[in-house]
Amino acid sequence: MLGMAQRTARKSGTAATRADRKSENAAARATRAIWSGTISFGLVSIPVRLYTATQSHDVHFHLLHKRDGVRLQNVRWCPKDEKAVPWDEVVRGFEYAKGQYVPISEEDLEHLPVKTIHTVDISEFVKLEEVDPIYYDKAYYLAPEETGAKAFVLLRQALEQTGRAAVAKVAIRDKESLCLVRPYQDVLSLETMLYANEIRSTKDIAVDGAGVSSKEIEMAVSLIENLSGSFDPQRYHDEYQAALKKLIDAKVAGAPLPAPPSERGEKIVDLMEALRASVEATRKKSSDRAEGKAPATRTRAISSRRPKSA
């Protein structure tokens, strides 16, 4: 019979193999085009391919039966036949009346009378700073087909020189999206965007000035200036995911769980006192930055404003 250490090693090895396999599959998907068509503006058409620009490193959980720890299955159940249905027998359908559905196939979608199915249709060029980031949804990369390389590079360099981005529309995965095309490194980035009617109003949650004094504003500005620097995404890491993986490793090995964070200090009720203490504490960082020293890494817990689309 294997000892605890051997069983743990085997589990860890299996988990590592699965993680490596997932990483390889993610890399393969990243280099596979998910859409091909053209970029169209004026009378110019550039044949391109579209690739996903981001990948998730989140830890994913499965649903288990609490009593015996067995993973639960998601079953596509047909109540008429009273049996599970395999994927190759599943089609999409639209409910046009209560309980009445019309099936829609990929071939049907090809008959949609819109050119954005195969075209990134550019309507105008705007300054990037005019677009509020709240409209951004999901990022993709555009790369040229071999026959369109010269025109593609010409567009990218023209956008760089003018400091503009292209507003366009494109249909991806059964939805026509507003999108923004801009230069990114040696390719073009295509960011799908939300439409104006998809952005909720802030009317019901807006606040007034709340009696903020000019001295408090001055102190807050000083704090912001002390903590200001150039954005470097490499300085920021997902500490939650790293800690979660350590906790999982400890559970698998039957080891003690990591100690939870210590309790925070008491809340400071006096806002001015809190601002003054913060400015004083960050003054050295501001001084170091002015002397050319590398700023210390700062981490913040930021909630996602909404779930990312698939």
Describe this structure in words.
The chain has six helices and eleven strands. By secondary structure, the chain is of the alpha+beta class. Among the domains are: 31-55 and 111-197, Ku70, Chain: A, Domain 2; 211-226 and 270-301, no CATH class. The chain is extended. The model is unreliable at 1-17 and 294-310 (pLDDT under 50).
CATH class membership of the domain at 31-55 and 111-197: Mainly Beta
What is the count of DSSP helices, taking H or I runs of 4+ residues? Answer: 6
End-to-end Cα distance: 45 Å
The SS-based structural class is alpha+beta
* Basic shape: extended
CATH fold node name of the domain at 31-55 and 111-197 = Ku70, Chain: A, Domain 2
User: Which sequence of SSEs, written as H and E, runs from N to C?
Assistant: HEEEEEEHEEHEEEHHH
Question: Rg, please?
Answer: 26 Å
Strand content: 15-25%
Largest sheet: 7 strands, mixed, barrel
Q: Write out the strand line-up for the largest beta sheet, numbering strands in chain order.
A: 1-2-8-11-10-9-7
